[in-house]
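Bumping with the actual sequence this time:
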Amino acid sequence: MADITIYHKPTCTTCRQAVQLLKDSGTPFMAVNYYEQTFTKDQLKKILKKAGLSPKDVLRTKEDIYKELGLAKKELSDDTLLDLMVKHPDLIQRPLVVKDDKAVLARPAETVKTLL
């Protein structure tokens, strides 16, 4: 069974680098494309809590959907941001990597090494 789960987007360069670091480490891991297996609100909330991050900490502000929704001009609650992130996965910084009761936003990819 995998000790580590990486939530990623396969076309993302940083995600590919983090996956390669995990492969090179020899540590068993499970890779989850969160565009195919979408987060539930509760799941995303728990991962962020493990990482000590708020939804604002992982909000991708350069994405088109961020601009389309006018999020820069709105003051939104964490709960609302989580709802938006679940509905629009492009709003989530990636990759998110989880091991037991810890998680990291692996940006840069080498951050994943803190879980090895």
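The tokens above came from a reply further down the thread. The beta strands are 4-8, 29-33, 96-99, 102-105.
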